[in-house]
Known about the structure:
125 residues; binds heme C; elongated; mainly alpha; 6 helices; single chain; Immunoglobulin-like
Amino acid sequence: xxxxxxxxxxxxxxxxxxxxxxxxxxxxxxxxxxxxxxxxxxxxxxxxxxxxxxxxxxxxxxxxxxxxxxxxxxxxxxxxxxxxxxxxxxxxxxxxxxxxxxxxxxxxxxxxxxxxxxxxxxxxx
Length: 125
Ligand code: HEC
């Protein structure tokens, strides 16, 4: 009776060990040396938000597919704004420029961060 409990316990511990080793190896398997995995995720998330949050309806960006050809705002493909400035701008454009035509899109901090990373890195890929 007792030995079967011990066997179960050691099996559980062994499995946990294997899982922990696999988890610790995961970043090594997925990582390309130039771009850490978190950054790739941020870029893709930002790219997705660019469409989902409607940026693409007013801005052209060469890595984002659009099905129309007019833009209200500037083309952001090669936009290289200062990240701190872009963060503030995305928080609330009219707080920076009272005559801003771009609306406050009610973005969360995570969404703003991903969009900033996307705008900074997407051109260089
Ligand atoms: C309704 C149209 C519209 C939408 C939606 C929109 N923008 Fe804009 N955006 C503009 C316009 C117009 C400008 C030019 C400045 C102005 O007049 O507001 C601009 C300017 C910018 C700038 C440059 C700011 C500067 O001063 O250099 C950035 C960066 C930007 N937008 C990013 C985004 C992102 C990211 C999104 C999506 C979250 C987005 N925009 C959604 C219209 C829009």
